[in-house]
Amino acid sequence: MAAVNADSRRAAPSVPGRLAVPTGVLAAVAGAFAYVGAVDPNEPGHYPVCPLLHYTGLYCPGCGGLRSAHAFVHGDLPAALHANALAVLGYLAFAVLWTVWVVHAVRGRPLRIDPRPGLVWSLGALLLVFTVVRNLPFGDWLHP
């Protein structure tokens, strides 16, 4: 009983305290984008090659993601979409989710992400269709 009373008397974290984790995540993502923006993945030798592409010649859903991020950082949206359109959607989804997270943190409410199974299966199906189509002859417009 004493532990419950001690926990209930503890003060809620301040707004800067609640924003510490979202800010740290944003700093890590911004640092990664800054690095990819500075070190061009189009030049060989800077990054490891995709093992699936290297050994099978098939494009995985992530192939072209670094080139997409590089183009995105440099403001070249058409090149980013051409390198990996799904990655660009991922960048935008991250921005929306991060913004919602920050709004929740400022208001003192925890962000609970509990996707329904239908959403998870739909995202998996999207990845699968994207991967299959980009490896078919008519899907060459999705090649990085």
Structural overview:
- The chain has 144 residues and is mainly α.
- Helix content is 66%, strand content 0%.
- It is built from seven helices and no strands.
- It has helices at 2-9, 15-18, 20-38, 51-56, 65-73, 77-107, 117-134.
Succession of helices and strands: HHHHHHH
Question: What's the pLDDT, averaged over the residues?
Answer: 90
- What is the C-alpha radius of gyration, as a whole number of Å? 20 Å
Shape descriptor: globular
Low-confidence stretches: none
Q: How many DSSP helices?
A: 7
- In angstroms, what separates the terminal alpha carbons? 60 Å
The major pleated sheet works out as:
none
Strands, count: 0
Kindly name the structural category.
mainly alpha
Q: Helical content, roughly?
A: 55-70%
Strand content: under 5%
In short:
The chain is mainly α. The chain contains seven helices and no strands.
Describe the secondary-structure layout.
Elements lengths: L1 H8 L5 H4 L1 H19 L12 H6 L8 H9 L3 H31 L9 H18 L10
Helix pairs in contact: 3-5, 5-6
Looking at this protein, list some descriptive labels.
mainly alpha, 144 residues
